[in-house]
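This week, study the protein below.
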Amino acid sequence: METTRQAIVATILDCFKDERTIYGIFHLLKGKKSAQTIQDGAFFGVLSYFGLFPTLKRDELEKDINKLISNGQASLVEQDKVILTNSGKQKLTQFQTKNQYIADLRGWQYHSYTEEFWLRISLYVQVITHIVSGNRQFYPITHQSSVQRWVKKHLPKSADERKEKRNHIYDELYAFLSRCSDIQATIFVQQLSGEKRVGLTKLQLAEQLGMDETTVNLYHLSTVHRLLNELNDRQETYQNLSIFDLGLKKSIVLTESARKTFHLFEKGHSIESISRRRQLKQSTIEDHIVEIAIQHPQFSIRPFVCKELEERILQVSDMLQTRKLRELKEQIGSEVSFFVIRLVLARKKVQHGS
């Protein structure tokens, strides 16, 4: 595997086996917010890679796949369906062992506000270090008005408070980055601007570190996602850094359309009623319900499927070792809808945390 992107493509291939086409990988990495992409991401445990390459083109993915095939690391099963070979699996294991930062990625969970969170930290550090040193003449790292307003609102008023805040943020960032890999910490810190210091671009860091720019960006995302994760889990440890994601995070990560469906469902509306009110196909509303079940651990699926049928579906799924809905339906019985099968599989993924 010659590039980090190829390795991530191989990772998803390994999870998909031959049950999804290579274009399922394309939509996932691009960050397509469709029901199919989100469900595939959840069912196969690859939502962490959601939206990592928003500018990815189809021909670039196809080149990555063809390279894996020509290297003997993957093989074509049928049209647009590819699996890893034993050689590919060995190479992938080597990559994952060497690049453990990949495990810090949380694409689906944080993709919608990673950039704004990072810009808040970057601008805040730049502003507070300049002001504390008495220098108010500098070029801000971003002109994004929402970020500038946020930083202005959260800057302490007095000089003593600003100095104290600067020191606290330094201490908390130091404590966090000391638990990251050296490369993660380097890429994070070298992008920050401060008094008498201009942060490096990802391209400059790539040249300095002898990496490609894509890999540098993945290191950056992994560190920011790890920080967001720690702020969620250990807020008391990061009392100063925890302000930077205020108003950004959502308790349940849903597409906007699924959120509207969820709101109506909580008011007691049935799938049929929501379909009429929203003038959407019933199958679309069912997709939303599956998405809600994936993202909301406390969401009950009992209005749609009894416990006995749920257990039957899970038994058949475990026996066949497949997520192919048609094969499952043939074994379970034609009277059971694809929607119910998908819903049960979604609930299983939530319960097993994958």
Residues 213-233 form the longest helix (21 residues).
